[in-house]
UniProtKB/TrEMBL annotation:
Signal peptide: none annotated. The keyword Repeat applies. The keyword Chloroplast does not apply. GO terms for molecular function: ADP binding. It holds the Pfam family NB-ARC. It comes from Brassica campestris. This is Uncharacterized protein.
């Protein structure tokens, strides 16, 4: 495979939010769950009905659907009603007991306990978990435990009493042990009929749209059944093979692939299931178009069970030259298309935002990741330093040009000594968050540069030093990506030598502590992504280096700086995203030429009128996401003129609007609306509930300052998520039958005057998750089973309370 000749440095500490998603996200119900109904029913019986069972292990070979089965139970209504608290933790091949215990406790307690968890010794942590599980009714899922020794290390925190339960998944039947309180559940392989049903639903999904003759259909059905036999009832193999054949839906392609599978697998007798699965996974890679092969191999950079944000991945791909986009294309849209292709082929697992329909994160199934790593090694795509390699040696790094460190055991990385290769294409440093890490790069000192919530109990400090010569970045002039969020710089000055990285296309300094940016940044003319959302930016003076960056697609400006003169941004005609645009430091007129803008965050801090603002952004026809912070007070008529965007889907208004009236014409395609600090005296619901496309509404701090709110019959016909936060004067809520018929998530936080939920809540049968935070404790009493208002919420699978206030 031809080398791309690209380069990057990504330093990622797995910050708290991705970590939380990685540990808690267990995936919602999946489609095509053919043949799993009886398995789910049996598993629910062990978890919900058998009080004598404390530990249930799901065991079997990879690809059998163990994690999928656990997900179905984890999200099932019966489980949510049975257990007070739920926790999902991915354990994986390299198991650290402290990590697992911290993750469980973090799942089971409120976010405010984060710092306390960091400081706990092993004994304190075990004791707190033991007491918590002993006095609660919790379900803990430990996904993908590899060794019996790992389970033996983890299990002391679980009390030997009825109540809390543990659900394990493992390829190793010996993991969970045996006894009266243990159940080892081994799912059956799919039957021939279920295998064929699943295969048809995927591989032949385009049958009706094809122009094949009945004879062709019959022949393809015969070939399909023959190929499906080699899947041997393994759901993963059937899904991947089906996804591959769906993309190659011609009779000639099926003949070719059928012969490939037959010639490789016929006559094999030892470990047939594993051979069949591995070949099908390998074949799915070989049949990818060239550009998707690079995209897939790129995922080998990320650790096991790592949720990758698709928006970041899209820009990484673009910076590497992997993502193909034309002048008029949006990088995010093209990235989504690539992910969709991989998802359609069942090679990537994704999480989709229900309200926007966009991909949020993606990850690899553990067996698909093994295939990815194997192919990356075969193609000499990258070199991964694992736990077996405590240091990086130049001898092992001379051939590949992309290097990934995913190991806490590595305590030093010396560029001069360890990476003796001037043609290095990529250096990625990703660590788990159970240790402090520090990075030194020619005066750049990084420590806790992402918000780390898992810290070693002894607070040991593991330092990662990256030493370079006085030439600074000169050694690595081919770099394409430099991702250093939260960096601490010596003297708060970014080294002037960064200007040597003339091939750089991605630079992120999110949250970095810096008060000086060198003029040499003007040499980075190929940048497509630049985030300067730094701390200490009030001391920044001039950003004239932006003048030459005409290729920028993404720009996050500093939030404030010393005012010398306003920035000149009228040359940035390719921008798709512009964040922290302030009228105090920027010229509104410059926005008129940014016709490709999809996302704009703007802070109006001077005397700029809404009419002037409207005239400046009126031509942004592609604008989809708009955040406006406005200091002035205007009426609905003025705002109507400003918000006249046909394509606007997401809007956040942080400004004073005393009254919402029918004169305020919100964009017709608006799906997400967030109001904050608006000071509305009258109920905004009569206006908002008539916005027929709204799927997500957030009324945040002091957006509404009235006492009574009414949601009428027929209102909010498409609303799925509603968040009410910091409405300190709100006392009464009326919900009429027929209002919000599709609502599935409701969150209420810090609304202290609200004493009870409306009676109409019982009519919202679509509601799945109801959460309260920082609310009156009497609410929980009324809504709990046996309480006066339990009938209002008894149909909701998940009702949770955090940080209740005693009043």
């Amino acid at each position: 495979m031809k080398d791309l000749g690209v380069q990057q440095i990504i330093v990622d500490g797995r910050d708290s939010q991705p970590s939380k998603q990685r540990l808690e996200f267990a995936g919602k119900y999946e489609s095509n769950l053919v043949g799993m109904e009886e398995n789910v029913k049996t598993l629910l019986g062990y978890l919900v009905e058998r009080d004598d069972v404390q530990v249930v292990s799901i065991t079997g070979m990879g690809g059998l659907g163990k994690t999928t089965l656990a997900r179905q139970a984890f999200h099932h209504d019966k489980v949510k009603r049975k257990f007070d608290k739920l926790a999902w933790v991915c354990v994986s091949q390299v198991c650290d007991g402290m990590n697992v215990w911290q993750a469980i406790l973090h799942n089971l307690t409120s976010k405010e306990d984060e710092n306390e968890i960091r400081k706990m010794t092993e004994a304190t942590l075990q004791d707190k978990l033991f007491r918590l599980l002993e006095t609660s009714n919790s379900l803990i899922v430990l996904d993908d435990i590899w060794k019996k020794e790992d389970w033996d290390m983890i299990k002391p925190i679980f009390p030997h009493k009825a109540g809390s339960k543990v659900l394990l998944t493992s390829r190793n039947e010996r993991v969970a042990g045996h006894g009266e309180t243990y159940i080892n559940f081994k799912p059956e392989y799919l039957s021939d009929q279920d295998s064929w049903t699943l295969f048809q639903s995927i591989a032949m999904s385009r049958k009706d749209a094809s122009d094949l003759t009945p004879d062709d259909d019959e022949e393809m059905e015969k070939m399909g059944k023959k190929m499906m036999e080699h899947c041997r009832g393994l759901p993963l193999a059937i899904r991947v093979l089906g996804g591959l054949l769906a993309e190659k839906y011609t009779i000639n392609n099926w003949k070719r692939l059928s012969e490939n599978i037959r010639s490789h697998l016929v006559g094999r007798t030892s470990d047939d299931n594993k051979n069949s699965l591995n070949h099908i996974l390998s074949l799915s890679f070989e049949e990818l178009p060239g550009y998707l092969k690079f995209c897939f191999l790129y995922l080998a950079h990320f650790p096991e069970d790592y949720d990758i944000y698709v928006v970041d991945l899209s820009y990484f791909w673009a910076a590497e030259g992997i993502l193909r986009y034309e002048t008029g294309d949006s990088i995010r849209d093209v990235g989504d298309n690539y992910i969709e292709e991989l998802v359609r082929r069942n090679m990537v697992i994704s999480e989709i935002d229900k309200t926007t329909g966009r991909f949020v994160t993606c990850r690899l199934h553990d067996l698909m990741r093994e295939t990815c790593l194997s192919k990356a090694k075969e193609e000499n795509f990258l070199h991964i330093v694992g736990i077996s390699s405590p240091t990086l040696h130049s001898q092992s790094l001379n051939t590949p040009r992309r290097f990934v460190s995913q190991d806490l055991m590595i305590t030093s990385l010396d560029v001069e000594r360890d990476i003796n290769n001037s043609k290095v294409r990529s250096l990625v440093v990703i660590w788990n968050s159970n240790s402090w890490m520090s990075l030194l790069v020619e005066g750049i000192f990084i420590r806790d540069f992402l918000k780390i919530w898992q810290i070693d109990a002894m607070e040991r400090e593991v330092k990662l030093f990256w030493r370079v010569s006085n030439l600074g970045f000169t050694r690595l002039q081919l770099l394409r990506v430099l991702h250093l969020p939260g960096a601490k710089f010596k003297g708060r000055r970014l080294s002037n030598s960064i200007g040597k990285l003339v091939h750089l296309r991605y630079l992120s300094l999110d949250g970095a502590r810096v008060s000086h940016l060198p003029s040499s940044l003007q040499n980075l003319k190929l940048l497509i992504y630049l985030s300067l959302d730094v701390l200490g930016c009030s001391h920044l003076r001039t950003l004239t280096f932006l003048l030459g960056m005409k290729e920028l697609r993404y720009l996050a400006l500093p939030r404030g700086r010393r005012k010398k003169r306003k920035l000149e941004l009228n040359h940035l005609l390719n921008l798709e995203t512009l964040i922290n645009f302030s009228t105090k430091y920027c010229n509104l007129e410059d926005l008129r030429g940014m016709a490709r803008l999809r996302t704009l965050g703007i802070d109006v801090t001077d005397e700029t009128s809404l009419e002037t603002l409207s005239a400046s952004i009126d031509g942004l026809e592609h604008l989809e996401n708009l955040v406006i912070v406005y200091d002035g007070v205007k009426g609905t008529k003025e705002w109507s003129t400003l918000l006249d965007f046909n394509n606007l889907k997401n809007l956040r208004l942080m400004t004073s609007i005393p009254l919402l009236s029918h004169e305020l014409q919100f964009p017709s395609r608006l799906t997400t609306l967030c109001l904050s600090e608006n000071g509305l005296k009258e109920d905004p619901m009569p206006i908002l509930e008539n916005l027929s496309q709204l799927k997500d509404v957030r009324l945040w701090t002091e957006s509404f300052m009235g006492r009574r709110m009414v949601c009428s019959r027929g209102g909010f016909p498409k609303l799925q998520k509603l968040e009410l936060k910091g409405l300190c004067e709100w006392e009464e809520w009326i919900v009429e039958e027929g209002s919000m018929p599709l609502l599935h998530t409701l969150s209420i936080e810090s609304c202290w005057q609200l004493k009870e939920l409306p009676d109409g809540m019982r009519f919202i049968t679509s509601l799945e998750d109801l959460s309260f935070e920082n609310m009156r404790d009497e609410l929980k009493e009324r809504l709990s089973e046996g309480g006066d208002d339990y009938y209002k919420v008894q149909h909701i699978p998940s009702v949770t309370f955090e940080k209740l206030q005693v009043r």
